[in-house]
Structures are given as C-alpha cells and as structure tokens.
Design a protein that fits this description.
The chain is of the alpha/beta class. It is built from 11 helices and 17 strands. Strand 5, helix 5 and strand 6 form a beta-alpha-beta unit. The protein is globular, with a radius of gyration of 21 Å.
C-alpha cells in the first residue's frame, strides 16, 4: 500500500506500540532496549509516572491559550532555567529548531539594536546540526540538507573545528554576529569539544563583541552529567543558548536562553509562537526539569556513562576490525566503526538494541538518564553480539 506520508524519513521496520522506562515494545511482540530515546529526548524513559501525572493533571485544567495572555507556568519554568544557568531571560518554543531560530534572530537583532546592522554573519562548523528549518540548516554544517532548496542564505559560514586560524579570522571580521557551536556534537559524531577550544572561542568573541551561541539541544538537560554541558568548565558561559529535547522529556518544548543585555532588542513584535510555552507543555517541562536536576539523576548519568564507556572501550579492544574509537560525554556516547554504521544499526535491532547513527561513521547511545547498571550491562551485551555477528558476516562474504 502506498503511504500517504511524505517520504522524508528512512524509517526502521519497527512499529512501536508502547514503552516503559528504557524498553520499547513493538506491535509484533518484540521488545527492544532503547538507547535512542527519541534521539536524546525521552530523558526519563518512556511513560515516566511523574511526567504522566503532570500531563494528566494539567490536561484536565487547561491545554492552550495564546501568548497574548500571561501563562504563569512559563514564569515557573523560566525561573528554574535562569536560576540554574547564565541566563536572565527565556523564550519558549516547541522544538530545538525553534530555539535555534530564536537564538539566531536574537544575535542579529542585538547588533542591529546597538548600531551595527552590518553584523549578520553566523559562524558555524562542519559536522554540526542545528535543526531543519531554513535558517537552522544554513547554520548547520551538512550541505546536503540544503540541496534543492535554493541558494544558501547570506551571512552563514561553516568552518572546520580544527582550523583555528580560519576561526580567528572569521570572528575578527567586522560583519561577524555570532558563533554557534554544540559543546558536544551529536549528529556530528558524539564529539566533545575541549575546554581549551571553547575558551579560545569565548575569548575571541569577547575581544570582538561577537556573540557566542551554545546549541545544547542534545547535550543539555543532564545528558553529560551536568545540567548543561558547558558547565563542566568554570566561568565558560555563552551569551545565548538553545535547549529542547530532554527539556520536555518527550513532550514538545524548546527554549532560547539569553542574558538581558543580549536580548534587549527582542521587544514586542520581533518574535513569537502560537503554541510555544502553552500550559500543557510547561506542566510537563516543570516536572521533567525537577526530576533531571536532582543530584541523584545527574550522579546516575555519570555512573552509567562511565559504565557504558568502559564497556564500549572493551568492545573496541575485542573487535579492532569493527570499532575504532569511543567518544562523547556522559550519556551522549558514540563508537566510530569500520563497517557501515547504518548496517550496524540494523544488526543491533536484530539483537533487540536500538542505537542512533552519527557523523564520521559512528553509532550513538543516548539512553534515558535514569538507566540502571543492569540495563547498561545488557546494552553492552547486545552490542557485543551485534559486533560478533557483523564480524562473522564479513568473514563469510570474504
């Protein structure tokens, strides 16, 4: 039967029926250990009872009103975000892409408000991913996402992370508006950027008045063991930050955070969202934030992250013909492979393990932040079986 859906996804042959915690159950009766988690989104697992309770309670009261009215729950979640970050103000949207759009507009508007409308250049990096809206794909470092959609928007530049000379030159251009970077790249191959690199870029931005945007849509909200990935480094904060995914832990919530000074140009009429920050989303976001921010949740991320990293490193040593390197941070961890990563994802599914793909031929493991040690051990066992099956298939084909 011809699908009536746009063919924009290469969907895996799994029809999910229900989930609980780290486990997904498909319609054909199969059970999968889910280390994709909606691509780092279901941070507290499937059907988390705390989130279910918050959703049901709010759904019985009020789902949606326009932002022409005050929404007290927005103030509550904004206060939590501001109190635990560098920021002074927050804008709520529905997704990471919307948070990025707001971040880019905020950066350009800042320079316009301060008498430098020529400062429009957004400096991004190869391998980066910032979303699928038009400005977001222009800011991203994957040119294939722009094919067939007309010319690239003006004012967007992509550089190589390792080319610091080019980065210095670009930031010092009089038209530079902002640098946008993921402290830990997700789709780019689970690459954690070094403190030295981040501090140099921060210093260059301070020197030139260029703004620094951190895209923490994937690495934020506890994914690395800190509430935000950049908080591993004291005193290293952005001017603007985008978060989403785990912020709603499966419910669509995105947020753009900024300092008051940087956001001074974002006044009435400059930006908005119909659904962003509605009461239903805010109720779930508040509940998710409170669970993720608990010290015991962040401690679990560190412990399970170390367990997974150790297990993956052992697999790299056992299968040097299959795996090359372990990378990432916390529960955003990846393995660079020699065989095709998409084929490995399919093989892992056969062994009841769901993993995500990534750049540089990586597979990513992005499990819920409350994954247990026993579940992590089982994930490694299933990936071990997948590697062994791949080795055998290669030997038989030789």
């Amino acid at each position: 039967m011809l699908s009536e859906l746009m063919a924009v996804y290469n969907r895996a042959p799994v029809e999910v029926e229900r989930g609980e915690g780290v486990w997904l159950h498909s319609r054909d009766g199969k059970t999968y250990l889910d280390c994709v988690a909606g691509i780092a989104t279901n941070a507290l697992g499937h059907a988390n009872p705390v989130l279910v309770e918050a959703l049901i309670a709010q759904a019985k009261k009020l789902w949606h009103v326009s932002n022409i009215f005050r929404i007290p729950e927005q103030e509550e979640l904004a206060h939590r975000l501001v109190s635990n970050s560098f920021a002074d103000v927050v804008f709520f949207g529905n997704s990471g892409s919307e948070a990025i759009e707001c971040a880019l507009k905020t950066a350009r508007r800042y320079h316009y408000t301060n008498g430098a409308p020529e400062r429009i250049d957004i400096i991004g990096f190869a391998g980066s991913f910032h979303g699928r809206t038009y400005a977001a794909v222009n800011a991203s470092g994957n040119p294939s996402y722009l094919e067939g959609f007309g010319p690239r928007l003006p004012g967007y530049t992509q550089l190589k992370i390792d080319d610091m000379d080019a980065i210095r030159a670009a930031i010092r251009q009089p038209t530079a508006a902002a640098v946008i970077v993921e402290p830990v790249q997700g789709e780019g191959g689970a690459r954690a950027l070094s403190e030295e690199w981040l501090r140099e870029v921060r210093a260059l931005c301070d020197e030139t008045g260029t703004l620094l945007i951190f895209d923490e849509v994937q690495s934020g909200m506890g994914r690395t063991g800190k509430l935000f990935a950049h908080q591993w480094f004291d005193g290293l904060a952005p001017d603007i930050m985008a978060v989403a995914k785990a912020l709603g832990s499966g419910f669509p919530v995105g947020a753009c955070l900024a300092t008051e000074k940087v956001a001074e140009g974002m006044v009435f009429g400059t930006h908005g969202s119909t659904f962003g920050g509605n009461p239903l989303a805010m109720a779930v976001g508040i509940a998710a934030f409170d669970e993720i921010a608990k010290p015991e949740t962040l401690a679990n991320v560190l412990a399970i992250g170390e367990q997974l990293r150790a297990g993956l490193q052992a697999l790299v040593e056992r299968y040097p013909d299959i795996a090359v390197d372990v990378r990432g941070k916390g529960l955003l961890v990846g393995v660079q492979l020699i065989p095709n990563n998409r084929e490995m994802m399919a093989t892992a599914r056969e062994y009841g393990l769901l993993v995500a793909g990534g750049g540089e031929n990586c597979i990513r493991m992005l499990p819920p932040l409350n994954m247990t040690a026993q579940e992590a051990e089982e994930a490694i066992r299933r990936l071990d079986a997948s590697f062994a099956a791949t080795r055998e298939a290669i030997a038989q084909a030789a």
